[in-house]
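INPUT
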Amino acid sequence: MEEKPQSPGVPTWLLQPEMYSPPHDRERFLRANRRKLAGILSNLKLQRGGLGSDCLASPLDRLLARVNPAFRLLGLIATIVCVSISGNMLFAWTAFAVFLVMLALKPAALIVDILEPCFAACLFTALIMLPAAFFGQSSALVRVTLKVLISVGLVLQLSRGVAHNEFVAGLAAYHIPGIVIFILDMALKYIVLLGDVASGALEALMLRSVGRNDDKSGASSGIMGVTFLKAHDYADEMYEAMECRGFTGEYAVAARRRFSGADGTYLALIVLEVLFLLFTEGVFL
Amino acid sequence: MHIPENYLSPATCGVFGAAMVPVWVHCVRKVKATVPREKVASLGVFAAFSFLLMMFNIPLPGGTTGHAVGGTLIAILFGPEAACLAVSVALFIQAFLFGDGGVLALGANCFNMAFVLPFVGYAVYRLFRDHAPAAWGDRVGAAVGSYVGINIAALCTAIEFGVQPLLFSDASGQALYCPYPLAVSIPAMTIPHLLVAGVVEAIATVAIYSFVKKVAPDYICDPNYQGAVAERASSLKPVAVLIAVLAVLTPLGLLAQGTAWGEWGADEIAQVATGGQTLGYTPIGLEGGWSLEAVLPDYSLAGLPDAVGYVLSAVIGIALLVIVFKLIAGLAANRARPPRASKA
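OUTPUT
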């Protein structure tokens, strides 16, 4: 019982060896959230202040970067509509070939970045469409899966090849109200800021979680709740900052780009694409 | 519930896009009119919050996770019109920057998740909050509202899928878009939502709402919130009916605890890594020869010379090879390089 303190001032209980081994807990939601948040944030952060040099490594992308993002958006939607309404698979396969060529010119990291979500979408589609094959609708399986791959791939190529701020500004060409563009622009910026808050809270929770956490729902709702409160504070601060800079409730979107030769060529390509669709559908025959 | 591209015909997408325009206009006007000016500036921030909420996994009983849409939650916190705008912007960002949900299907997705879900969920929530005792009406209203909201939205999605084969099929009777009729699409969409996704939505909504209410009640900025606290406990009938419906559905929710919902995110990655080069052809291979007869006519290139087909295959083949070699080289380079110092 009589234990001699080894050093003066240190209580004996502090000198007892701790043999605590925390019970094992599955922290799937913590891990899954961290992974997901990190993926989103790295994606959006890469784009802070424009595109990285890696994004424009492909010569084709450098050419496309000269085109007004508003037209590229038009081209994307036109292509997706064409792929979607094409009954003849020649058009879809051609679009697929063009997509692959554009992809093949990019650096490996960017290819992975684009293909990962594509495969997820295709796998999901193939799974959903699989029973259709047993109903004798097997062509729907191939058709829809291929078209999903092309559409998702083209969207991701555009998203990785255009700076987000330019893309949002490009929307102004379509007379979308300033307030909508403003909301979109703010949302993109604040996803990064709030995402940092959420991932910080998540990391703190992980570091402090020892042993079994029986209130996982409480923990995760706490993180989202804190993020909500932080969103509120950010919004107030932003409004104050905007008012200090003369904000009166009206949003003006900055001047548009001039029409260039690259824009003209791109628009001509869209027209050719539509003509090709009509040709494959037998309109000219 | 995100409808990908090509599940709906462009015509259907156009109809839903057109249907959403007046909704958006109404929401922008209503938000501008009812929400104070300093709050209008904050809509973008709340859209960002909505986006993150859709990305955030909520732990489920049984060790699995799922994610909520959060439309009802945002409607309770800011009002349904603000929720409609916030979720719409979040869906826009998902469609255009992350390839999640179709670009053409954006109108339909917004109709289901940004219009039906928050408005239905909010209406049910108001029913409880205004008629049930204050002690539990608020919380139960949030739970039931979010549960009903996501399920009605899932039903709308199912109907959109289900009408496709009725409206759009080719001469041989093969569906051009989603091939499942209503008899298949409605149970396929609604049962998982009744059993699992609705439960996740309800758990997430109640938990986050209670947290915000407890920690910072002033931050709830639904314009209808302050006025409607008085006058309640007058009619409990509609509430009782809803509780009865919920009671009937609850055992179904318990049954579903063992299913691996949300787990397949990890499976998906594994499958992508192993089957990465198959490019979605796997299903045909799995089905064997019989399906090929049905598939092949589809590939016939409408009487064009074979050369076109050869050229096309060559282009696809070469591009595929280049991609595969680049990926292998990229992987090898990553492995050879020591892990980077943690600079982030």
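end of record. Chain A touches chain B through 117 residues (CB under 8 Å).
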